[in-house]
Amino acid sequence: MGAVYFYHLTRAPLESVLPMLAEKSLCAGWRVVVRGTDKQRLEWLDQKLWLGADDSFLPHGLAGGAYDAMQPVLLTTDTRTANNPTCILAIDGSDITAAEVGEMQRVSILFDGNDETALNRARQQWKELTNAGCSAQYWSQESGNWQMKAER
After folding, report:
1. In this structure, which of 2, 13, 38, 143 has its CB flanked by the most CB atoms within 10 Å?
2. Beta strands of 1-152 (E only): which ranges?
C-alpha cells in the first residue's frame, strides 16, 4: 500500500515545487501523472515545465496527444490515465481516493497555503484519506526547508 504526502506550499509556487517532486519520482523509477482540475491551468503548467532550468529536462506531455501512453509524466484532468502511473501528483484540489493511494507507490497532494479554499480542501482530503486507513504525512515549507509536521 502506498502513502499520501500533503505538501503545504507557503514559500515556493507550484511551478517550482512540482518539477522537483516529479523529478524525484522519476528517479525512484515511478511513472507520474499530474492530476489537475482545469485543462487551461494544466496547459499553463505544461509551458512552465518546458521553460525549466537549462541544466534539467523533465520529460512530460499534456494528455490528449498521440504519445500519452509513453509519457513518463502526463498532465491530465482525467482519473483514467494512459501512461500507467505509479505516482500521482494532485494539484488544485483534484480528487484522490483511498483506493488510488493503495494502488500507487506514492500520492502527493500539493496545495497553496495562501489560499483558504485550497487549505480547506486539503484538510478535508486529509480527514477522508486517513479515516479510510491511508498512511499520510503532512509537509510544510514555512521554515524555508521542507519539514514533516504530522504523520498518521
Report:
1. 2
2. 3-9, 32-35, 61-62, 73-76, 87-90, 106-112, 135-140, 147-151
> Phi then psi for 4, rounded to 5 degrees?
-115, 130
pLDDT, tens digit, for every residue of 111-132?
999 999 999 999 999 999 999 9
Task: Report the number of secondary-structure helices (H) and strands (E) in the chain.
Answer: 4, 8
The C-alpha atoms of residue 137 and residue 133 are separated, in whole angstroms, by: 13
Does the pLDDT value for residue 73 go beyond 70?
A: yes
pTM above 0.85, yes or no: yes
Of 66, 1, 64, 52, the C-alpha closest to 22 is 52
Contacts of 65 (CB under 8 A, 6+ apart): 71
What element of type H or E holds 26? helix 14-27
- Cell numbers describing residue 24: 524525484
Domains recognised in the chain with CATH numbers: 3-151 (3.40.50.10110)
Q: Per-residue pLDDT for 18 more than 70?
A: yes
Residues 27-38 pLDDT 10s? 999 999 999 999
Name the grid cell of 123: 484538510
